[in-house]
Design goal:
The protein is mainly beta. It is built from 8 helices and 33 strands. Strand 25 and strand 26 form a beta hairpin. The two termini are 31 Å apart.
């Protein structure tokens, strides 16, 4: 490929690989945080000449084996170029391309540390950033035409976001504010959501000190993991083990997945983290002081939603100890949390083992170490009620061109770790699931590779929509390569079969629920052609087949043509035309889209129709950038779109987004 901006292109590709296989609900909960993490890491790359193991493990593509090898390599001489890292054991071309946007060699001679009392120390590498974003559906939705007294939206249809951030090598100050469409905004201090922090970073042994909002990501995610993570997808090896991000200042607009209070990490070979959080949450009231578990939507658009806003408190405290030993990285994590109201669980069978009460605590121990050239990792955790969750895995090279990944997880049905995010078939809390994942990738000559995984899983207790234990398996196969210097292509095949219940009528006329197989299969072909330095073309065709238990097969397909025009050094345009035709929502097709900065778009398309969008990015100067996105979706043979308060009369939905960023 011709060089455009290789770092930005690679970040974009990694986000696409991470999220395009997820549905919009799953990706939306954590995608914005992971997007921001990668974008920020690319803007502030890790210095491979000075970073320790924990810092290096922040970088996609790094594991403990590579991090140790980098440190051993630089003991003989510093890295003189970024590409020199390919001489390190375990870093091939694919791994190098994955980590390239996030690493730097810095200066070869480290500057003598200034006194902490010097303003120059705190302002070294200072960057100031202001972001303002406007987004809106252009057609009127039912919620905006319905009066407040009848349950309509109380605010205007604009979704507005703004962020102010000052960041240096040792200091971060941030305020993020957002109102969703339908929420009220009565002034600069009256946003529905405001996040802020003041953080000291990388000050000797004081790794981080945060006052305000922060995220915590430890071990393999069974105790605490906020901020999104890579999971099952096109990267079949190298992503099943989590590289913890530890304590980080929080500046995302995702409204529920963070802590608010004070936290600090201190140490070198042995790191200590302590944290305290006290923040309001929103929950539906059952009766009296009994509520459901706090909502993760963050919406306060109707009067009833607004009346519940921040109606309970959640107080959390805990800590972590992590030791970097000759045997590997060993960590112990624990926390205790208390709600101001009694949390009641639902009445369905799938809620049978859900959390109930005011208090919960979870603690666990995790490990990452090397056995020869293989990475071995795992974590085991226990919740307050005695439920156990565990995960163990290995990532190993098999010969020179093949990598193998194995992971076994067993999250008991009564394991209650609602602040965790474990690897699994379902996103979110690691509970009620066991399974075995096997992934393998093999590099072929001439720039080709073949990879795939098989993931077998089981749910011991009923899930939503079922009354008994169920199981299934998921298979993915991928062939990709560089056909010519300017033409890349891949073929992806995926097949998933899992248990589901359906209803039949017996001879006596009674309804009976029986277990059957739900099947979903898809095949995708995508090509990407760099016509010249200014034009990139991307084409995709995808076919999906789905069969519900006891029903006939349904079909869906998608075809799109995408073009990127680098009209000048300052002006970039992305445009796409998509045609789709699906028999039902079950055969929906997904497409990952270019969007405004820090916005994740993984759009689900169903029905028969077309979607067109365009994104314009203009760098007016070194300190001023603009983004503009317009999209329109047309669904044929329908009189209205969506339902409830989101219903739109007619068969078109159009959306406009505008964003500006000032930085200096």
């Amino acid at each position: 490929m011709y060089a455009q901006d290789s770092s930005k292109v690679e970040v974009e590709r990694q986000l696409e690989k991470a999220f395009e296989e997820l549905d919009t609900e799953e990706s939306g909960l954590t995608g914005e945080q992971l997007t921001q993490f990668l974008e920020d890491l690319a803007a502030n790359p890790i210095n491979i000449n000075s970073a320790g193991v924990s810092e290096l493990l922040q970088v996609p593509g790094f594991n403990l084996l590579i991090a140790r090898a980098v440190i051993d390599y630089r003991k003989t001489k510093p890295f003189e170029s970024i590409s020199e890292i390919q001489e390190v054991r375990g870093v091939g071309l694919a791994t190098y391309q994955r980590m390239r946007p996030y690493i730097t060699i810095g200066g070869l001679n480290e500057r003598i540390r200034d006194f902490y009392t010097s303003p120059g120390y705190w302002l070294s590498g200072n960057k100031f950033e202001v972001i303002s974003r406007y987004q809106q559906n252009l057609e009127e939705q039912e919620g905006f035409s319905r009066p407040d007294s009848l349950g309509g939206y109380i605010g205007n249809p604009v979704k507005y976001y703004q962020r102010l951030r000052m960041q240096s090598e040792h200091l971060s100050i941030n305020m993020t504010q957002e109102k969703d469409a339908g929420e009220q905004l009565n002034g600069i201090s009256d946003f529905d959501y405001t996040s802020w922090h003041l953080a000291l970073t990388e000050n000797g042994d004081l790794k981080s000190l945060v006052v305000g909002d922060y995220s915590l990501s430890f071990g393999q995610g069974l105790v605490i993991w906020t901020g999104g993570a890579f999971g099952k997808g096109r990267e079949v090896t190298g992503t099943i083990s989590k590289n913890e991000r530890g304590l980080r200042p929080y500046g995302s607009a995702q409204e529920t997945d963070f802590f608010r209070g004070v936290a600090a990490t201190y140490g070198d070979q042995v790191e200590f983290t302590a944290f305290y959080s006290d923040r309001p949450r929103t929950a539906s009231i059952i009766e009296g002081d009994t509520t459901r578990f706090p909502s993760s939507s963050g919406f306060h658009r109707t009067q009833s939603e607004l009346d519940r806003r921040n109606n309970i408190e959640q107080q959390t405290f805990g800590g972590r100890i992590k030791a970097d030993t000759p045997l590997g990285l060993i960590g112990i994590t624990g926390y205790s949390t208390e709600f101001s109201s009694y949390i009641g669980k639902g009445n369905s069978l799938s809620d049978l083992y859900g959390f109930e009460g005011r208090n919960n605590s979870v603690y666990g121990i995790d490990y990452r170490g090397l056995v020869g050239s293989s990475l071995v990792f795992g974590e085991i955790a226990r919740s307050d009620n005695g439920g156990i969750g565990g995960v163990a895995g290995v990532e190993a090279p098999v010969g020179f061109s093949t990598d193998l990944a194995l992971l076994y997880r067993n999250y008991q049905k009564d394991f209650q770790s609602f602040m965790g995010t474990g690897f699994g078939e379902t996103s979110g809390d690691p509970n009620n699931e066991s399974g075995l994942y096997v992934g393998i990738s093999h590099r072929l000559p001439n720039g080709y590779s073949i990879s795939g995984y098989v993931d077998q899983y089981q749910f011991e207790a009923p899930r939503s929509g079922t009354t008994q234990s169920t199981e299934g398996y998921d298979v993915l196969g991928l062939i990709e390569g560089n056909i010519t210097n300017n033409l890349d292509a891949y073929i992806l095949i995926r097949n998933e079969i899992k248990d589901d219940e359906y209803v039949i009528e017996t001879e006596s006329g009674r309804e009976q629920r029986i277990l059957g197989k739900e099947k979903r299969a898809s095949v995708r072909l995508q090509t990407e052609y760099q016509l010249n330095r200014k034009v990139r073309l991307r084409s995709r065709g995808e076919l999906v087949r789905y069969q519900s238990p006891g029903e006939s097969w349904e079909t869906g397909f998608l075809i799109y043509q995408d073009v990127r025009l680098q009209l000048s050094r300052k002006l970039q345009v992305d445009a796409r035309v998509t045609f789709f035709d699906t028999d039902s929502f079950d055969t929906r097709v997904y497409q990952f889209e270019n969007d405004l900065l820090y916005v994740l778009s993984n759009v689900a398309l169903s029905g028969r129709g077309e979607r067109v969008y365009g994104v314009l990015k203009y760098e007016a100067s070194e300190w001023l950038e603009f983004w503009l996105k317009y999209s329109i979706t047309t669904i044929e043979d329908v009189q209205s779109l969506s339902s409830g308060l989101g219903e739109i009369e007619g068969n078109q939905r159009s959306f406009l987004g505008v964003q500006g960023r000032v930085r200096f």
